[in-house]
Write a structure and sequence with these properties.
With 332 residues, the protein is of the alpha/beta class. It folds into two domains: 158 residues, Periplasmic binding protein-like II (D-Maltodextrin-Binding Protein, domain 2), CATH 3.40.190; 112 residues, Glycine betaine-binding periplasmic protein, domain 2 (D-Maltodextrin-Binding Protein, domain 2), CATH 3.40.190. It is built from 14 helices and ten strands. The strands form three sheets. A five-stranded mixed β-sheet has the order 7-6-8-5-9, with helices on both faces. Strands 3-10-4 form a three-stranded antiparallel β-sheet. It has a two-stranded parallel sheet with strand order 1-2. The longest helix is centred in the N-terminal third of the chain and has 21 residues. It is elongated.
Amino acid sequence: MLKRKTERVLPLMLALMLAAGLGLAGDPAAAQRLPGTGQTLTFAFTNWTGDWLPTMVTKVLVEDYLGYRVDIADLTVPVTYAMIAAGEVDVFANAFFPNQESLLAGYRGQLEVIGWHYDGTLRGWAVPTWFAEEYGVRTVQDLNNPEIARLLDLDGDGYGDLMGCEVGWTCHDQIEYKLQAYGLDRLYRQIDASEQMINIAVQSALDNREPVLFMAWTPDWLLAAYPYPEVVTFLRDPVGAWPGAEDEPRNEFGYPPGRAGILVHRDFQRRHPEAYRLMSQISVPLEAVNESVYRQVVLGETSAADLERHAREWIDANRETVDGWLAAAGLR
């Protein structure tokens, strides 16, 4: 009886020993030294769909290959900067510049960008292409016409509506600056509802061939669903009024090209050296973020499981690139 029991136990023990020796190859973290085991990093999310893919790719890699637990805190952008400076939040994986340059300058001695994702984003005010052609609206200055403003008055309050940005977003203040600089505030008001509400209003107008004026940018779902310039026309802004430095380069639509990076406290490298090395390598491209935003807004893939799946699918499809990051961080 004892012999038969031992015969059953020994193969099981051997299998467990082999699994331990091989590092459980199916689990990327198990084969590695896990400096993050038992530790939690808090990532900020600032209520922008474009945050999710860079945030989730960074989260998945830090969890899988370093053993950290990652919590995500839903915060406004200014609060994010303040809480990273205070040590209450660890990482903002999709800090966007130059929009947040003034915030970074306010914490210059405390915060740093340790890696960059995409750059060369497109931003500006936009209208449906049919509207631009029918009414001759090609520039921001063409909006300075009471008849055009009347056509864009969607709520009947006597002012044209510019579907803009949420209060607290830097682009909200940039729009207000431009409206005042061009004297357009006498004809137009910025609608500063949530991103989701703005998306619904713009999508409805485009689908129903109705006039609409809105702030457009990449990364975003809209230009994937409604291509530029076939469906959407960006309004040129040859004057280029801008609340930042006069010598700051701007595109033909009056906005500096944007780029996104990973923001941490300057002490992060000392406290989490392995995570610092890995995150310094991570760079999620613009086209991937555009696709993720499209899947969220148009296809409704917004659950936590969906968002992590987007990240893991991108990682799997770009295995060579990701392996290069891991090697550079000393994890290969």
